[in-house]
Every structure is written in structure tokens, then in C-alpha cells.
Amino acid sequence: MSRLSLVMFFVLSPIWLHSRDQVCATIELLPYLERIESLVEKQLIENPESFNEAKLIERKNESFGIQRVEACLDLFTFFIYRSTDKAKKYNDEAQRLALDLDFKPEYLKSSLNQAYIYFIQGLFGRALSKIAQIESQIESQNIHELIAESGTLKSYVFAEQGKYELALKTALDVLEMGEKSQNKYAEMRAYSAISHVYLRLNEYDKALDNCLKGLDLILTLEKVQYIFPKIDELARMAHKLEGIEKASEIYEFYLRMEKKIQEPGSYVRSIVYMNMANIYIEEKEFTMADYFLSKSLDLIDSNNYRFRRPRAHVLMAKLYLEVQDTIQSITSYEKAFYSAKVINAFDVIKEVSKELSQLYLFNGDSLDAAAFSDLHLSISDSLFSVESEQRIKILEAERKIDNISRQKELLELRTESQAQKYRFLTLILILTLISTGIAAYSYMKVKKKNKLLFNRTKELTLEKLNQKKIVPDANSTARKPVTTKKGPKSQQAYIDEDVKEIILTKLQRFEEDNFFLDTKCSLRSLSEKLQTNQKYLSLVINHEKKTNFNNYINELRINFLLNRLVEDKDFRNSKLSYIARSSGFNNLNTFYSAFKKRLGILPSYFIKELNDEEMG
User: Fold this and answer.
1) Alpha-carbon dihedral angle through residues 292, 298, 304, 308, given to the nearest 10 degrees
2) HSE-up of residue 148 (Cα within 13 Å, Cβ side)
3) Are 270 and 279 in contact (CB under 8 A)?
4) Contact 175, 183 (CB under 8 A)
5) What pLDDT, on a 0 to 100 scale, did the predictor assign at position 160?
């Protein structure tokens, strides 16, 4: 029995003895566990070498051609969760052989394996780049299994980066492909990816539903290599949905399976340790939580599982908070922050920056609290679709935090009299200050420009509001008629003058009635409301309003919005999504784009300046 087995057995046995006779009313997992055990026993009889390292290596050494390539790929599967170095070694050999012998599917499979190694190492950019290199080749070969592997891996990467909508869409595309082609392997991988996304979103009912669908296919296809991760996922979801007793039952089953076949390796064990630690934290069993979390971190660090590191440190920080050790909690959250920063795990950065802001504020460190608060708000308020703007905001906030960290380290080194390192860091600090100065100068220029745009916009808005108060009847101000020179009609007028005047009069009434606030307002709907055709309406707007229909409507909406933002404090402090809908925009991206195009500044900035002026 392995050390993991012994520890988990003695830890979980008391709970298991108490709960093993209880039957779960809402999550009926026993049939699945029985099928898993039957499959393992069947594989041990029919294909024992798949669980034996020596026999797999012997098969590789005695085979040639395609059989040797397949043996190397099997060794990759055997080692991927045990030793990434050995997995890479055999996968590289498979790739070289497949390339030399022109075995296209096996070469593509080994390329995807390399992308998966990058994923495990937390090198998400490399993983996606590798997939992009071979994606067109995979699709041209029309190998459904490889297409499914490619899409599933991309979904995993997106989920780890916090891009959950993209992760889910990618997984659903794989599922649709599998269903259309009736490829059960593709469906199996898709359900795994979908379950992973919902697990990240803490939607445990949906995660469990998709996990069981995937597990059913795993058992049908007899893919034993996916068994251990699935058992762990079941335990995590059972704990959230039914409590520790159900999770303990599943982990006890995990131990039984581990005795029958070789343990799954450090990668899966590191995940299991983390999940067990999380359970013990929630159950206030802090000693056991610390034990398993320390074991997990040891495995993560020794194997450089970079994308596991941020979440492990988050768990450690939560554990320290539970025992009221805020200093150690801050240290762990900082480790989580910097390890998440390395792999661009934006959801972890968002969560950790909020916690650090609150902890620093609690400890009286207002400088750090403000820096992390700015970072949290920049990620929360930024639209991921405006990627360049978001990255700039995040980098600016991170730079603040980096500078503060360097200053702290400099002070520590002074107290320790480390002169050499002090001089080195002083040089870095000087360079940083120069860079910061340049950045600050650029920032002040932008800030000054934005302030001028804000003041001009506010002044014009107030001026229009005052005009409305002086002249309450909007119809009393006659519109200056549009005149045209006399001459041949075809040369002088784009439309009949009477028709034009009728449309302009109706448009004025339309503007006064605020019909443009309807999110469904379109050229077609407006032409029907004004009882004219779309062509005439478009021509009048283009010539008389000097713009196209969409810009015209957006201009009216923004003008209306400015008045309301200035006058209505409660309205401007509403959510931006509500403000956008109330102004006729059914899409935040369109709202942001229209506002910035019209005024040169973002609505969030305009609202902030209005509030600051009012408070000042």
C-alpha cells in the first residue's frame, strides 16, 4: 500500500465506518462505482501490461514501425500523470518515428501530447500555440478523436485562464461534433471539459450531471486512464452537494482502486491532496487540512505543476485565515498572486487581489490595500472584449504592486546590511523610477486630456439643460428650413422637398418622444413608425443629420444619457449594464464604443468624475 493510501485510509476510515451503510437519496453513485471496479478487474485480466511499466517498456523495445510508435504513445499515457519528463521522452520518440515513417495521425497525436505537457506545466501560451500549429492538419485529416482532444485541451486552458464563456463554447463545439459524427470518444472528452468549466463556476449540479455523462462513456469505451481523475471529481462534487460523509465514501473507494492498480501518479495525487485539504478546511479540521495541503504543495513544487500552484496557495491562505494568522495568510495570497500572474490566470488574480486589499487594509497598510483594490476593480470593470485596454489597466496596476514589493525588499535588505544586493536593487529601483516617471508623465497627459473632455461634455450638457428650462416648449423653437437652389430636380435635390420636410418633422417628434430609447429601434422599425420607406428615411438622415442611421440613434441616446447622468445621482450609480439598457443599448460593447466615440472618454470615467465633483 502506498503512503497516500495509508494516510487516506487512517484519516477517512472513521468517517467511512460511520457513513458506509447510509444510502444517498439524491446522488446515486453506487452503480457507477461498481462499474468502475468491474472495468478495472476486467482490464487486469485482459490487458495487465497497461498497468505495468516494465512490460510496456519491454513491448516498446521489441517492436518496430507503427507498433513501436503506438508503444511509445502508450508509455506517454502511462507516465503523463507520474513523470512529465518520462512522458515527454517517450512522446518525443513517438513523434520522431512517426515523422520519419510518415505516420500522420500518430504524428499529430504526439504533437497534441506535447501541447498537453505544456498545459500541465502551466505554459498555456505554448499549449495554445502548439494546437494552432496543427489544428488545420487535424481538421483536414478529419480524425474526430484528435479534433476532440484539441478542443478539450483548449477548453481546459481557457478555464484555467478564467475565460469561462470561451471554455464552455469550445467544449460545446466538441460535443456537437461528437453528436453529429456519433463519435462517443469525442462526446466523452466534451463532457469532461464541460464538467470542468461548471466545477470552476461552482455550479455543482451541472458539473455532476456532465461528469456522470462523461463517466458513463469512459466505462462504455473502457478508457481506464481517465478513471482516477473522475473519482476525485465525484468526491469534490459529492462533498459540495451532500457533505463530507459522501465524499469520504468515494475517497475510500479511490483507495481500494489504488490498491488494485498502480497509483495514478504525482499529478493526480497533488489534485487529490488539494481537494481533501479543501474539505478539511470547510469541516474545521485544520491539522489534517495543513497536512494534505503541504503534501500537495510539495508535489506541485517538485514537479513544477505551475497552474496548480496559485490555487494551492489560495487554499493555504484560507487555512491561515481560519486560524486567524493574517500575516501568513497575506504571504500565501501573495504567492498565489505572483504564481497566477506568471500564467495569466485572471480569475485567480481577481479573487486574490480582492482578498489582499481587504487584509492589507485590516493591517493598516493603506498603500498596498489601494494598489490591490485598483487591480481588482480594473479586472472586474474591464471588458475582456476590449482586450488591449484591459491588459494595459492590469499591467499598470501590477507595476504599482511590483514597485511597492521592490521598495519593501529594499528596506528589508538595509536592515540586514546586505550591501551588494542593496546596490543591485537600488539600480533596479532607479530604472524602475525612471520607467515609472515616463509612464506617469504619459498617464498625466492622458488624465489631463480626459479631464478636459469631461469638463467640456459637462458644460455642454448643463448648457442644454438650462436652455430647456428657459424654453420649456421644445416646439416653440422653429427648425431652420433646408433650402435648395433652383434648377433641374435631378441635380438639385436628392429627394422631393415636401417628402423631406415631412420626414424631418416626424423625426423631430420622434426625438421628443424618446423612441430611440427602445433597444429594438432600427431603420426598419422607425420607418414603419414614421410611415415612410427605409430608403427615404436613410437618405434624409444621411444628408440632413450628416451621419448614418446607427450613429444618429447612438448620438441621441448619448445626449439623453448625459442629461440624466448629470441630474439623477441614483441613476448614475446604477450598474453600467442597467444604464446601457435604459439608454437603448442592449449590448455593453456597443454602449462603451458609442460613448467613447462620441465623447472620447469611457462612461465609467465620466460617472466617477461627476461623483467626485459632487463629493468635493
Assistant:
1) 20
2) 23
3) no
4) no
5) 84
Sign for the CA dihedral angle at 131, 134, 135, 138 comes to negative
Q: Is residue 134 within 8 Å of 152, Cβ to Cβ?
A: no
| Residue-wise DSSP of 432-454 | HHHHHHHHHHHHHHHHHHHHHHH
3-state secondary structure 61-127: HCCCHHHHHHHHHHHHHHHCCCCHHHHHHHHHHHHHHHHHCCCHHHHHHHHHHHHHHHHHCCCHHHH
pTM (predicted TM-score): 0.53
**Is 202's pLDDT higher than 50?**
yes
Tell me how far apart the alpha carbons of residues 312 and 317 are, in angstroms, rounded to a whole number.
9
- pLDDT at position 381: 54
* Measured distance CA(192)–CA(186) in Å, rounded: 10
Rounded distance between C-alpha atoms, residue 241 and residue 206, angstroms: 11
What's at 8, amino acid-wise?
Answer: M
For residue 104, give the nearest of 66, 131, 154, 76 by alpha carbon.
66
Q: How far apart are the first and last CA of the chain?
A: 70
**Average pLDDT over the chain, rounded to whole?**
79
Can you give the pLDDT at residue 337?
87
Q: Helix and strand tally (H, E) in the chain?
A: 30, 0
Per the CB < 8 A criterion, the answer to whether 92 and 69 are in contact is: no
Residue 478's φ and ψ, nearest 5 degrees, are: -75, 140
Query: Exposure pattern of 542-571 as b/e (b: 16+ CB <10 Å)?
Result: eeeeeeebeebbbbbbbbbbbeebbeeeee
pLDDT at 414: 61
pLDDT at 514: 87
* C-alpha distances in Å from residue 560, one per residue of 455, 516, 575, 602: 17, 10, 17, 16
- The mean pLDDT of 513-537, rounded to a whole number, is 88
Q: Does the pLDDT value for residue 468 go beyond 70?
A: no
Tell which residue, 187, 157, 172, 215, has the closest CA to residue 34: 215
Instruction: Confirm if 69 and 97 have CB atoms less than 8 A apart.
Output: yes
- 3-state class of 484 per DSSP? coil
